[in-house]
Amino acid sequence: MYHVEINLYNAKNELLDQRTETLGLRWFTMDPKNGFFLNGKHLKLIGVNRHQDYEGFANALPDAMHIKDMKLIKQMGCNFLRIAHYPQDHVILEECDRLGILSCIEVPMNNKNNVESEIYRENAILRQREMVRQNYNHPSVVIWAMMNECLLRFPGKYNSKDPYLQKMGELAAVINSTLKEEDPYRLTMIVNSQLPERHLDAGTGNTPDIIAWNLYHAWYGPEIFDGRLNDFISEMHEKFPSKGLMITEYGAGADQRLHSFSPTRWDFSCEYQVKVHKYFMESILKRNDVIGGAVWNFADFASDSRQDTDPKMNSKGLVSYNRTPKNAYYYYESMLNSKPIVRIASRNWKNRSGIEDELNSNTCSQELEIFSNLDSISLYVNDKLIETKKTNDHNSAIFTIPFVTGSNKLEARSGGTSDIIFIEFQVVPLSLKNKYINFNVSLGSNRHFTSRITGENYLPEKEYQEGSWGYVGGTAIIQKGLPAVGTALNIYRTDEDPVYQSHREGIVAYQFDVDPGKYEITLLFTEPITAKKRKTLIYELNANTETEIQSPDRIFDVTVNDITFLKNCNIFNEYGDRTAVSKKLEVENQGDIKLNFIPVKGKTILSGIKIRKII
């Protein structure tokens, strides 16, 4: 980086104005088949999208927080930032220049546009000119972008002959010409949804230098990890052979409170998010005809229409709303850095629980993924070497850890680099006899959940076996659509939505084989069926504008050791739909505890159960 001092004088040689501008010297080219080149060397652009949005500040961020974000992005190993979907604080491009992060910038043009209005079109063109003139001197800017997913939403039923398409194509051509007129040296890019036929019909794919795609395979699409992403890339090159190709959005939601050792689509586990990112990185890194990829998103951000596990939050970030890194952040850190890296993936999941491996083993074995850009990783548990493993193509190795109750020290070593964490663990025994009992279970789910309010852990459900504990009968509401478990709609009167969003329907009983004593048991319910009309969620692309479901018809009794605890329980009538309900009772028993769920009308339901021994 250099500095250029500009002085403006009048005819009398009097100084009128003075300004210092930064200057960076670089040159770049782009080839549809061979990708992007910086100063004559091939460079794969790998980075993130970013919203200037922060917990507690919305988008009114002080400079220090913008700079913190940029440092985290650079630390991750990124060389590219898509500033989406609007010009952000000037400090962002200043940091891109300083840190050597190439960038793309755009002005808001999303979804449906008022292309019938001449005033709108003039304003759209003016904003493009302003964008270029305001940011022209930043050497980090290499791409001017336009029209993010402008054909994702369509006025009415889709019709390939609709005049709207022609007008969108005409506007795209004018905008591209405007950008080239203002700056003939940088690349232009249109960002499309994964509906290429619409962009072919509109002709919007014929104007810019780069055709970019926002792709959510294995998240909004089916849970399939095969060659369809590669097939899509090849097909787009056939349709647009003279254009560069970039993947400008991809990702999956991840709630840092949720973990799974058998992750599935839309379970919002941190582990499934990593699985999706590995899938995309395979194609992005290996194919020279892909300029690069930008993760959606760098950080979780507020999104008022979202429901999911954390309402009003888009959780596709690699870091949380308060910038705590998720597992996927560490994956990229190991993949993109040349300096030695060793990172325990779930290093922020430090308060855990799990069910005993076998009777009286006093251990719970759980998988642990570790990322490193070195050849092998050695794992030590409580200073004892467990195993040494080679890293795979994703700079990853998976170990099985025999956790014990209490503090567990984990140290991953590779060469002279290491990562150390301490995990506080609770092993929940299979037999509850002669044991202190205090644990929670989430029904209808295979996910581990940790409350950010109380710190309590919820175990995945377990079927009852004699001499142990668990549920009897019923069906977990598991879907292959949106979401994977229970309901995607937020739950009222709780911050622990994931616990209430999953359920076991038609449950017959829940039994604890325990010693005589005094116990506190809490049952967690919600009625997932909503009787209200609701607006279609933003990601329900094929749904109607509103959805209406009939009122639920569910009444049941609950008995505890044959004594009635709840009579004619009607959650919907008493509390309404999608509302967290907890029912607590104390049980003094002379033997085992059995809760029976007896249907009166419709099916029984249970979302969670908590048990604590008092005496």
Question: What attributes characterize this protein structure?
Answer:
alpha+beta, 8-stranded parallel β-sheet, globular
Short structural summary:
This protein is an alpha+beta fold. The chain is built from 10 helices and 40 strands.
Number of helices: 10
* DSSP helix fraction: 10-25%
SS-based structural class?
Answer: alpha+beta
Could you give a short account of the major beta sheet? 8 strands, parallel
Structural shape: globular
Please tell me the overall pLDDT. Answer: 92
Which strands sit side by side, in order, in the main sheet? 12-11-10-9-8-7-6-14
Radius of gyration: 28 Å
Low-confidence stretches: none
Beta percentage is 25-35%
Q: Could you tell me the number of beta strands?
A: 40
First and last CA, distance: 70 Å
SSE blueprint:
Elements: E1 2-9, E2 15-23, E3 28-31, E4 35-38, E5 41-42, E6 45-50, H1 63-76, E7 80-83, H2 90-99, E8 102-106, H3 118-135, E9 141-146, H4 163-182, E10 187-192, H5 196-202, E11 210-214, H6 228-239, E12 244-249, E13 258-259, H7 270-286, E14 292-295, E15 301-302, E16 313-314, H8 327-336, E17 342-344, E18 351-355, E19 364-372, E20 376-381, E21 384-390, E22 396-403, E23 406-414, E24 417-428, E25 438-442, E26 448-450, E27 457-460, E28 469-472, E29 475-476, H9 497-501, E30 504-505, E31 509-512, E32 517-525, E33 534-535, E34 546-547, E35 555-560, E36 563-569, H10 571-575, E37 581-589, E38 593-601, E39 605-606, E40 608-613
Parallel strand pairs: 6-7, 6-14, 7-8, 8-9, 9-10, 10-11, 11-12, 18-24, 25-27
Antiparallel strand pairs: 1-2, 3-4, 4-5, 13-26, 15-16, 17-19, 19-22, 20-21, 20-23, 23-24, 25-40, 26-27, 28-31, 29-30, 30-39, 31-38, 32-37, 32-40, 33-34, 35-36, 35-38
